[in-house]
Design a protein that fits this description.
about 240 residues, about 20% helix, alpha/beta, about 35% strand, 11 strands
């Protein structure tokens, strides 16, 4: 049985237009035990009406922390409308962990395909691998609309030049603009891109996370490229 624990909103860290990182800390000082990749239910209770609104979000922080972090796009949904007006010190409720999208630390080689805020569980996985000095080989292709939508830039930068784990991140921009000055890959993730940046993809466990259409397309792509179904793990969501 999962218990909704009251949690204090400790920080709101802007990441991109309408996307923030929200950091919560349990009021009782407890630490959430979970496997990287899992998600939590975040709830807001209206103090006037008592109405409770809850949505699922992948956990972006790693296990063992005294706080829980989420990357949340403000899509003007029932809960995100509350988060748009949230202030540090507000009380929310968290129930966790849930889900089968779990990082298997025993596999060694991984391919992460992330779309937008689907980066969240991969941040958790990579930070967990760093904290535990896993000899993992991680290649991630991260797809966003515009360069200004690249999330957790400082964290992504910190993953470079690690000895354990080895992390290689390729970012592709799907809607490049003439004044972007973007020098990296452009377009949606496709067979050519995967083969170029992760040529040994068939040797890796593939994790995919992002919006529904992104996950469906990536799962079909990896299957068409010969990756066994058992080696494809997916997590997706709608709006909240």
């Amino acid at each position: 049985m999962f218990v909704k624990k009251p949690s204090v909103l400790e920080a709101i860290i802007p990441q991109a237009e309408n996307i923030n990182l929200y950091r919560f800390r349990f009021q009782d000082g407890s630490i959430l035990d979970f496997t990287p990749g899992m998600f939590a239910m975040l709830y807001y209770k209206d103090p006037q009406t008592g109405e409770e609104i809850g949505r699922a979000y992948s956990i972006a922080s790693e296990p063992g922390n005294s706080y829980v972090e989420f990357l949340i796009e403000l899509v003007h949904g029932k809960l995100t409308s509350k988060l748009e007006q949230a202030k540090v010190g507000d009380t929310y409720y968290i129930s966790a962990p849930y889900g089968a999208f779990k990082f298997d630390a025993s596999k060694g080689k991984y391919l992460f395909l992330a779309g937008g805020t689907g980066l969240a569980p991969f941040l958790s996985m990579i930070k967990y691998a760093i904290k535990n000095k896993l000899s993992a080989d991680i290649s991630m292709i991260y797809s966003v609309k515009y360069p200004s939508y690249i999330l957790a830039k400082d964290q992504l930068e910190s993953f470079k030049n690690l000895e354990a784990p080895k992390v290689k991140t390729t970012i592709t921009i799907t809607r490049p603009q003439p004044n972007d000055n973007w020098q990296g890959p452009t377009g949606h993730i496709n067979e050519e891109m995967v083969s170029k940046y992760v040529p040994d993809f068939k040797e890796r466990i593939c994790y995919i996370c992002g919006p529904l259409n992104f996950v469906k397309a990536m799962k079909e792509l990896m299957a068409s490229m010969g990756v066994e179904e058992a080696n494809i793990k997916t997590e997706m969501w709608g709006e909240g």
